Structures are given as structure tokens and as C-alpha cells.
Amino acid sequence: GICGRTRAETFDADGFYRTGDLGMLDGDGYLWYHGRNDDRFKVKGATVYPSEVEEALHRIDGVEGAFVTDVPGPGGDQVGALVVAGLTPDALDTAVRAGLSSFKVPSLWYVTERMEDVPRTTTGKVAKSALQDLIGKSGKKIGAATTTGETFQKGTRQ
């Protein structure tokens, strides 16, 4: 998006290019990447950073991968998570509550034991819209009644 634009259009008054990346310099001078400014979303007015929720999920023993996104719902956006682990959604929900504010805890869970189930683009990045669709259509809503006969099984419909 910068091709053909002037320097004044591209850089701010201090000479910086706004990438949208979020980070922090620690006391030792290390730069820690915290995701992108445009990845955040709101749930009932509160800001959720997917990278923060993913980090909390990665701290749970047995979690190999965690991918968090907003999932549109009838009452607004919800926090959805696809987690690669040999754990149930209920176990993940209980474990992650210890480290997150309640509004950041996923309400929709899709759990699989196969990293291959994570939707990706041709370049290997997570395909956000496909991830939203998968979690929205097949995720397990914690605390919600399930359809008769619908049960949790690893790697299948949640």
C-alpha cells in the first residue's frame, strides 16, 4: 500500500512507518512481539487480543497449538478458539480461566489432535475467515445445551 505514495503520506512526523504491529521493549532491550493492532476485537465493549488468549492456552500442559479469533454470534462477537490438544473443551475452559479475565475466555471451542485441521492459506498462514467458519459452525459452546446425540469426540464435531 505504499507504492506510489509520497514520503509525507507514508511516514509520520517523526519518520516512522505505522506497520500495525504491537510490541514491547523490556528492560534488557529485547523486543517482544504481541500481535497486530488490527487483530484485536471487541466482545461486549471489551478489547480482546487473540495473541494474549493464545499465549494463555499455550501455557496449558498438552496444548500443541492455539488459534483464537472473533466469531460472529446473535448477541455480537464471541471469542472462539481452535486448540490442538488431547484435552476436552471443558478441561481447557477450566484451565485457561486461571490466567485470563472472564471476557477473554473463549465461549466457543473446537478441539482437535491434528495440526492439519487448522485452516491455512496457500502461504501457510492461518486462514482467518475459514477459522471463524469452522469454530462458528462446529465449535462447542461451553455452558450451552447440545443437540440430542451430539457429544464431544476428539478430532470430530465439537
SSE layout and pairing:
Elements: H1 7-10, E1 21-25, E2 31-36, E3 41-43, E4 46-48, H2 50-58, E5 63-73, E6 76-85, H3 89-97, E7 108-112, H4 128-138, E8 140-141
Parallel strand pairs: 6-7
Antiparallel strand pairs: 1-2, 3-4, 5-6, 7-8
Characterization of this structure:
The chain has 158 residues and is an alpha+beta fold. 21% of the residues lie in helices and 28% in strands. The protein contains 4 helices and 8 strands, in the order αββββαββαβαβ. Strands 5-6-7-8 form a 4-stranded mixed β-sheet, with helices on both faces. It has a two-stranded antiparallel ribbon with strand order 1-2. The radius of gyration is 18 Å and the shape is globular.
Notable features of this structure?
disordered C terminus, 158 residues, single chain, 4-stranded mixed beta sheet, globular, alpha+beta
> Helix/strand/pairing class, anyone?
alpha+beta
Radius of gyration: 18 Å
The number of strands is 8
Number of H- or I-type helical stretches = 4
Q: Beta fraction of the residues?
A: 25-35%
What is the mean predicted local confidence, pLDDT? 86
Main beta sheet, described?
Answer: 4 strands, mixed
